[in-house]
Amino acid sequence: MRDYFTLDVTTGGRSKPQITVSFDGPSEQFMEQLGVDTGASPSLDSDRLDVSYRMHDDSMAIGTSGVFAVTDRVTGDFILECNADAGTIDSLVTAAREHDNSTTDGQYQFTLTINDREVLSCDRDLFLVYSTEGELLRQQSLIPSGVEL
What we know:
Number of domains: 1
Helix content: 10-25%
Number of strands: 8
Structural class: alpha/beta
Strand content: 35-45%
Distance between the termini: 29 Å
Largest sheet: 4 strands, mixed
């Protein structure tokens, strides 16, 4: 199902950085995965979502790849996964930190669309980056102060 997802990151301008994940495939299958009827809008609780990136290579350079994922923090279920360029993810984290220069926490906006219909848009301040071995890379992640992992 990864082939149906595209990831777009916008980091320029005065607004906060944005990640948009677009699903352009059979919506019935994805809506079923989200646990909703095909005619309804998904009721994703943004407070339960974890956004992360797992590196395939040991580099965050442009041209290296990894997997962008959104999971349910409570159940551990994957909401979506898609391939993403490590350099693009690194630029998002850097832009989020620069945008919120009053703290080192950073903020960004996450948007999910299904066949050009926006189903979720929320502000996020947590973005976890993992190494190829699954170790949390705190320096490459956005972790708000006071959050214990």
